[in-house]
Structure formats: structure tokens, C-alpha cells
């Protein structure tokens, strides 16, 4: 948590009397001190934004995109920000460069769903995602984190291969999952594809080398060599977690495992602009 409360430490001298350190840190985060921006594409009613909030990480969605006007109204009610109706298929580098440190994406699933025609990369509904990937590869300051979800079927698609190639071309480390909500303790068995990618540090080899069908129980750092070790609920050695045999929460998985820095990246371009205040 040291990096998270950096601004709190710098401004501790003006903390109002009677306000605890963590409460003051929350105020500073709300004002924009030390908070990183995220962009949500295909935002709908804000499912990805909700997950980001649940992760309890110092990130705030600063821009969202969806062409559905009704969904945008619902998003505004949920998050007090109306997404842009701009076509994702026509977004340009100047609109996305240096805008956010984290990209959240849930592109149309119709080109890949097993119940559809599976036209894949030839389906017109794939064009917007392909355009995002093309723009991403040209950014002067690309995001450090990338989270994308889709249906079972995307994992065998040509668009997935295109996505992996684009991410690797700009030094993203990638981990892929096929997961069901019931693995997070939610009574739903719908299988979904997830790609998490980050530029800050590699994923453990046992995660990056395959399509993962289970969730890491805990992300740990080995202090002796600085490497990350993940345990899985189906590992032969058994779970290594204080809550044995219980699925991790979104906060544990996103906040404590995925969104980890190596301390070498320059953060300033990604910080949310500070709000005006009377302090």
C-alpha cells in the first residue's frame, strides 16, 4: 500500500484534525491525487467500471465509449459520467494517446459465439476492436494494463491471434483464462474468455504458457528474488491461502494480483487531473 498512499504522505501536513490517515487518503484520491485513469470501451451499463471499483485500486474511469444511447444513460446514472457515442471503429491515436493507464474492453461477441455464424475476423462487428488494436500499437504512451473479456469461442478465433500479436509488439505480458462466475462464488456457469495483459512485469511461466481454466488463489512476491508466485485451487500441492478452498474476490484477483507495479514506470502521464478544491 506504500505507493497507494504516496500523496497522503506528501500532504499529511494539511490533513484536517480528527480525520484519519486512510480517510484523508480517500479524500485525496477523490480529488485526483495519485489516481490513475482508465478507459472503458463497449461500456454498456458499466460492468468493467464496477469490477474496477470492487478491486479497490486507485483507478478511476475517465472515459467510456458505447454507441447505445440507453446504455449510456444507465451508465451515467451509475457512475455520474456519460460515455461518448463516438464510433470505436473510427477512433484515432490523438483521441486515445496518454489518456489512461488501464484499458477495459468487452467487444461484441457475435462474431465468435458458438450460437452464431462464427464469421470471426470477417464479421463487420469485429472492425471496431481491430481498429482499437491498431491504434493501441501506435500510441506514444500506451496503457500499462489491458483487460478484455468475451465469449467462449473467441479463444479459437483469428481476432484473438491478431490481438496477441499486437499486444506482444508493444511489450505486453499476457495471461489468458476461460472462467465461469461460479469460480468467484457467483451461481452462474456461463464460460467466458478473459485476457489480462500488463507492461509492468511478466506473469509467472505457469500462467503465461497456457489457457488457464482456474483462478490463482493468491499472488505472492518472493522477497529473495522479486518474482511473483501464483497458487491455483487445482494445483497438486493444494491451495496456499488463508481462506483455503474459497474462491478469491475480485478485489483479491484484480487489486492484489493483476495490478502490480515494478516501480520503474513513470506514472505522471496517467494520473487523473486533480479536481479544484478549497484546501
What's the layout of helices and strands?
Elements: H1 6-10, H2 21-31, E1 36-41, H3 47-54, E2 59-65, H4 69-79, H5 93-96, E3 102-105, H6 127-136, E4 145-151, H7 158-169, E5 173-179, E6 192-198, H8 205-208, E7 211-212, E8 216-222, E9 227-232, H9 250-258
Parallel strand pairs: 1-2, 1-3, 3-4, 5-7
Antiparallel strand pairs: 4-6, 5-6, 8-9
Overview features:
279 residues, alpha/beta, seven-stranded mixed β-sheet, 19% strand, globular, disordered N terminus
* Structural class by secondary-structure content: alpha/beta
Order of helices and strands: HHEHEHHEHEHEEHEEEH
The stretches of 5 or more residues where confidence is low (pLDDT under 50) are 1-9, 218-227, 233-245
- Give the distance, in angstroms, between the N- and C-terminal Cα atoms: 24 Å
Number of DSSP-assigned strands: 9
Biggest β-sheet: count, sense, barrel?
Answer: 7 strands, mixed
Describe the structure.
The chain is of the alpha/beta class and 279 residues long. The protein is built from nine helices and nine strands. The chain has a seven-stranded mixed beta sheet with strand order 2-1-3-4-6-5-7, sandwiched between helices. Helix 3 (47-54) links the parallel strand 1 (36-41) and strand 2. The longest helix is centred in the middle third of the chain and has 12 residues, at 158-169.
Amino acid at each position: 500500500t506504500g505507493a497507494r498512499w504516496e500523496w497522503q504522505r506528501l500532504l499529511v501536513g494539511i490533513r484536517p484534525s480528527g480525520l484519519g490517515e486512510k480517510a484523508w487518503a480517500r479524500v485525496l484520491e477523490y480529488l485526483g491525487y495519485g489516481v490513475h485513469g482508465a478507459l472503458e470501451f463497449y461500456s454498456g451499463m458499466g460492468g468493467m467500471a464496477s469490477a474496477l471499483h470492487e478491486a479497490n485500486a486507485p483507478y478511476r474511469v475517465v472515459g467510456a465509449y458505447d454507441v447505445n444511447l440507453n446504455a449510456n444513460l444507465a451508465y451515467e446514472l451509475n457512475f455520474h459520467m456519460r460515455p461518448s457515442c463516438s464510433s470505436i471503429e473510427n477512433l484515432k491515436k490523438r483521441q486515445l494517446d496518454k489518456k489512461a493507464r488501464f484499458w477495459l474492453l468487452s467487444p461484441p461477441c457475435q462474431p465468435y459465439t458458438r450460437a452464431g455464424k462464427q464469421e470471426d475476423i470477417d464479421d463487420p462487428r469485429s472492425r471496431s476492436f481491430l481498429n482499437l488494436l491498431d491504434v493501441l500499437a501506435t500510441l506514444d504512451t500506451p496503457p500499462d494494463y489491458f483487460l478484455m473479456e468475451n465469449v467462449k469461442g473467441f479463444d479459437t478465433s483469428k481476432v484473438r491471434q491478431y490481438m496477441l500479436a499486437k499486444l506482444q509488439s508493444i511489450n505486453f505480458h499476457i495471461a489468458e483464462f476461460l472462467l465461469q462466475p461460479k469460480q468467484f462464488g457467483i451461481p452462474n456457469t456461463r464460460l467466458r474468455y478473459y485476457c489480462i495483459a500488463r507492461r509492468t512485469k511478466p506473469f509467472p511461466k505457469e500462467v503465461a504458457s497456457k489457457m488457464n481454466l482456474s483462478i490463482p488463489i493468491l499472488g505472492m512476491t518472493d522477497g529473495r528474488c522479486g518474482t511473483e508466485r501464483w497458487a491455483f485451487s487445482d494445483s497438486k500441492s493444494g491451495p496456499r491461502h488463508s481462506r483455503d478452498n474459497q474462491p478469491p474476490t475480485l478485489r483479491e484477483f484484480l487489486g492484489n494480483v493483476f495490478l502490480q507495479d515494478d516501480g520503474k514506470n513513470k506514472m505522471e502521464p496517467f494520473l487523473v487531473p486533480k479536481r479544484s478544491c478549497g484546501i
